[in-house]
């Protein structure tokens, strides 16, 4: 089967977050025998340098080769988008139009690619891209949803852009196949688009076994968004002081884009160490035996939860970060919203090394089971 993936998100082997999820999806499809090609919609920001975007394209071409197609949009497209966002924020309480982010130039570009390559399936990233299916036909018209976006202002308790479920339903109903990244969201999409086929594809992860570090370091690798910031603040202000009462040598190591916000706020607290940008996440995870995901807001896939398990850590999460995960009952996770329970659990972990060794066995089994399940979902898609 020949598959075209369409996205505004760049993908190459060193990406993380949603970029990583898209690339992992492409890898599964290729492993199952598909010819996968990628159309990258590159919207250049008003302030970003041309060199920055050229570097991204160079990395992408290194991975995709002649399977990469690029549509570069003029800078005024981003300018109009920013103006539009300001209007909806000021005048409509951030209630926006679903297709504001769709670029009309995508349609003729995809039409030309379809005439040349005759794709069996198209897989668009994010719901606003489904407008494409009004103009270009494919045997399989699929969407990788990434998230539930209707009424997101109510879900996350933040002043964010949102739209209503009626818009989301109309967009999903253009698709023959809907890929959700967690089970609860898949059931929601089934209600909105009952005639589509639905799959819970999550995101596959490669298991990276790591030796026991034998220290009391706690690691947290995160991008710089409001949900991650709020979760980290909750941990630092409520949990970390309880841990330090019993374990004066405990350290919280923080890496990633979130360090830009935390710097100057919490880096003067004893035991907190900012590592900044890390080139290889595995090297950062190797610095300790324990990883945390204290995020208590947002939707979508709990990426940091899976990354911690895949990197063979004892993983502690807020209950929110278990919502919709694969095989929740057997997931090798500690979950609580009570700070003292976090501290008590770590007190039990930082004892006999056999405890950590046993959790590592569960990490390996869980990741392998997760990947088998995901591959089965993609096989269903190809055979439908």
Please give a quick description of this structure.
By secondary structure, the chain is α/β, with parallel strands linked by helices. The protein has helices at residues 17-31, 50-64, 75-91, 106-117, 152-156, 165-172, 183-192, 226-246, 259-262, 281-285, 303-310, 339-349, 353-383, and strands at 2-7, 35-43, 68-73, 121-125, 140-144, 177-180, 197-200, 217-221, 251-255, 272-276, 290-293, 314-317, 333-335.
Structure write-up:
Helix 8 packs across helix 12 (339-349). The chain has 384 residues and is an alpha/beta fold. It has helices at residues 17-31, 50-64, 75-91, 106-117, 152-156, 165-172, 183-192, 226-246, 259-262, 281-285, 303-310, 339-349, 353-383; strands spanning 2-7, 35-43, 68-73, 121-125, 140-144, 177-180, 197-200, 217-221, 251-255, 272-276, 290-293, 314-317, 333-335. Helices cover 42% and strands 17% of the residues. It has a seven-stranded parallel beta sheet, with helices on both faces. A six-stranded parallel beta sheet has the order 10-9-8-11-12-13, with helices on both faces. The longest helix has 31 residues, at 353-383. It is built from 13 helices and 13 strands. 35% of the residues are buried.
Summarize the SSE layout with pairings:
Blueprint: E1 2-7, H1 17-31, E2 35-43, H2 50-64, E3 68-73, H3 75-91, H4 106-117, E4 121-125, E5 140-144, H5 152-156, H6 165-172, E6 177-180, H7 183-192, E7 197-200, E8 217-221, H8 226-246, E9 251-255, H9 259-262, E10 272-276, H10 281-285, E11 290-293, H11 303-310, E12 314-317, E13 333-335, H12 339-349, H13 353-383
């Amino acid at each position: 089967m020949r598959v075209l993936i369409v996205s505004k998100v760049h993908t190459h082997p060193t990406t993380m977050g949603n970029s990583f999820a898209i690339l992992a999806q492409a890898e599964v499809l290729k492993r199952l025998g598909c010819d996968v090609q990628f159309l990258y919609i590159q919207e250049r920001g008003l302030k970003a340098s041309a060199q920055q975007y050229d570097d991204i394209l160079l990395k992408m071409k290194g991975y995709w080769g002649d399977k990469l197609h690029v549509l570069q949009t003029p800078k005024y497209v981003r300018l109009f988008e920013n103006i539009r966002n300001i209007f909806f924020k000021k005048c409509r309480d951030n209630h926006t139009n679903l297709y504001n982010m769709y670029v009309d130039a995508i349609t003729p570009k995809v039409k030309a690619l379809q005439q040349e390559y005759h794709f069996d399936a198209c897989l668009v990233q994010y719901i606003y891209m489904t407008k494409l299916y009004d103009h270009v036909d494919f045997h399989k018209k699929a969407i990788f949803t990434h998230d539930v976006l209707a009424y997101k202002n109510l879900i996350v308790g933040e002043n964010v852009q949102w739209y209503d479920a009626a818009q989301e339903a109309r967009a999903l109903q253009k698709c023959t196949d809907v890929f959700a990244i967690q089970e609860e969201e898949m059931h929601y999409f089934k209600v909105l688009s009952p005639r589509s086929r639905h799959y819970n594809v999550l995101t596959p992860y490669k298991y990276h076994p790591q030796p026991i570090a034998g220290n009391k370091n706690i690691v947290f690798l995160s991008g710089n968004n409001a949900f991650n910031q709020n979760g980290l603040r909750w941990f630092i202000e409520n949990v970390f002081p309880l841990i330090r009462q019993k374990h004066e040598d405990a350290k919280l190591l923080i890496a990633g884009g979130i360090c830009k916000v935390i710097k100057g706020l919490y880096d003067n607290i004893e035991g907190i160490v900012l590592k900044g940008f890390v080139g290889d996440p595995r090297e950062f995870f190797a610095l300790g035996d324990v990883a945390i995901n204290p995020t208590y807001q947002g939707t979508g896939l709990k990426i940091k939860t899976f990354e911690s398990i895949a990197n063979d850590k004892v993983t502690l999460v807020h209950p929110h970060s278990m919502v919709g995960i694969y095989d929740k009952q057997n997931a090798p996770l500690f979950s609580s919203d009570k700070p003292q329970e976090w501290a008590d659990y770590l007190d039990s972990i930082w004892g006999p090394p056999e405890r950590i060794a046993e959790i590592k066995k569960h990490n390996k089994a869980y990741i392998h089971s997760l990947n088998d399940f995901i591959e089965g979902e993609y096989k269903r898609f190809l055979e439908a």
